[in-house]
Task: structure prediction
Amino acid sequence: LIVLGIESSCDETACGIVDHEFKVLSNQLYSQIKEHIPFGGVVPELAARSHLQKIGSITQLALEQAGLNLKQIDQIAYTCGPGLMGPLLVGASFARGMARDLNIPAIAINHLEGHIASVHLSNTRLTPPYLCLTVSGGHTELTLVSSYFQYQTLGRTRDDAAGEAFDKCGKILGLSYPAGAEISRLAASGNRSFIVFPRGLRQTQNPEFSFSGLKTSVMRYIENQTPKFIADNLIHIAASIESAIVDSLVDKTIKTMKKYDQNQLVVCGGVSANPWLRQNLQLSCKKNNWEFFAPSPEFCTDNGAMIAAASLFPNKINTLLNKSSVRPWYPLSDIA
Ligand code: KG4
Ligand code: ZN
Result:
């Protein structure tokens, strides 16, 4: 079974091709970041137009990289949400039009399920049950994945997502959008206890996060410093911000692993590319004798291969049940 996946929920036009064993045959994407930088964030209307312009050529590139033509594709998967409405509609219309023409199934995939599936691309021995920490620009949540079909969201952020916290703090520091990777690069050589920024909701036991207090605290701190002081100490400020975000994520994740008696931890989403987060989660898992899984760095941020992979979950179940039909995860009427 060969699946082509289309991702267009935000600012990446992506197409990936994956086979039934989660082997990635190709993964191509066009990042719109440069188009949005002048505005300091993603402009939905611009994003939709850019997807429309690029989606055809990115799909063509993915087919060429895999050495396949459209007739060899058995199933098309696309992101149906959550995300920006215009961008989602471009991807959904493109994918469903193509599937209809080829007379093959079009499967609507939830973007967050796509991120969870990204971990299976690099770790074929991973099977549920596991606890998954999804950390991206739009989401921060802890999900109990009890089987390929069953997800239970245990808790999420009450305000900003972890990636959003990185991006907003970066903006305050004068870094360009998205700032997560740049903060993490600066932080690597900084003093992590230079400033102790707040760790939101740390005292509580519930699996919820909060990052808006951190953003305000960084803003107040920066307002009271001279530009020279900020420039001279940028690596230390970055390290202090990164540590505050990572400490909050690790603390709640470990508490939840214990509370739900899990022994496999998975992290996914754009922020899971962060080396300090990965290192800390891995260390905690080692201490507690738990297994730790993360996507390889190229599959942490949005991509098409993860969407294709998610559409294989229901199929996997059907294979186990010895059925041959492919069941859509979401009814096709559920689009965006
Ligand atoms: O999953 P993703 O590509 O898009 C969403 O679904 O939101 O995540 C993008 C987010 C951005 O906020 C970006 O700043 C963050 O992931 N990010 C990072 C790193 N690489 C990307 N945050 C921290 N450290 C990184 N190395
Ligand atoms: Zn994402």
